[in-house]
C-alpha cells in the first residue's frame, strides 16, 4: 500500500493511497463508519500525489504500463507517458511545484542496449520535456557511462537481461534556489544539479579523488608556506613589540624622573615660601615682644619711682606727726 497525507489551503487534510489495483482517498480525521472513495481501478505501481493550485494531483503507472496523471474532481485523467517496447518502463515518479508550475520527475529504463536516465516534464504543457541525465550500456563489452556517470545502476544477469536498480533523488529548496540531488544506490556516487529554470538543470561538477588529492596537497603546501610566513612575521612582530616596549619603558622612566623633579621643585618652592612667611612672622612677633618688654620696663621704673615718692611722703607725714606731739 502506497499512501500520502495532503493538506489543502483551507486546512482540510486527506489521505490518498493505493491498495491492490485501486486508488482511494478519504478525508481526515477518519471517523468510524466512513468509507474511502475509490477513484481509479487500474493502478499497478509508483504512486505519487501532491497539491497543485489547491487541487490534489496524483500520478501512477497503470496496468498497461502507462503513466497517468489525474486529479480529484478537477478534470479527466491524462496519459503523460506511454509504454514503450518490451523491457522499457518508468519508475521513481515524483511531482514538484515550482513558481506556479507542476513538474513530473521520472526515471525511464529499457533493455541492456538503451540504459536508463532521469527526466522531467511539465504535464499541463504540451511537449515540454527535459533530460537531466542519461546513461547507456554497451552490451557484452560492459557498461558505458555518459555525463560523468558510471553505469552501475544497470546490472546484467546470467541470462543476459538488464535488471534496473533506480537512483535515489531528492529535490531540496535552499536559500539560493532549488537543487536536485541523485545518489547511486550501488556506488554511493552523488550528483548535484542546480534547477536553473523550468527545464534547465546544470550539474555541479564533483571533484575526483585524484583532483581532490592534488588540491589538498596544494592547499597544504600553501598553508605550510603561509604558516612559515606567519612564523617570520611572528618573530618580527615580537621584535618590534619588544623594541616598542623598551621605548615605552624608557619614556615612562624619563617621564617619572621629570615628574619627580617637578614635584621636588614644587615642594622646595612651597617650603621656601612657607619658611619666608614664617621668618617674617617670627621677626614681627620678636619686634612686638621687644616693644612690650620695653614698655613693661618703663612701667616698672615708673612704679619704682612712684613707690619711692610714696615712701618719701609717708616718712615726712610720720615725722610731722611726731613733732606735733
What do you see in this structure?
- The model is unreliable at 137-163 (pLDDT under 50).
- The N and C termini lie far apart (175 Å).
- This protein has a domain at 2-206: Neuraminidase.
- The chain is elongated, with a radius of gyration of 57 Å.
- It is built from 1 helix and 19 strands.
- The protein has one helix at residues 209-324, and strands at residues 2-7, 13-19, 22-28, 37-40, 43-52, 55-62, 67-71, 78-81, 89-98, 101-109, 116-121, 129-137, 143-144, 154-156, 162-164, 168-174, 177-183, 190-195, 201-204.
- It has 325 residues and is an alpha+beta fold.
- The relative contact order is 0.05.
- The strands form 5 sheets. A 5-stranded antiparallel beta sheet has the order 9-10-11-12-13, with no helix packed on it. A 4-stranded antiparallel beta sheet has the order 1-2-3-4, with no helix packed on it. Strands 5-6-7-8 form a 4-stranded antiparallel beta sheet, with no helix packed on it.
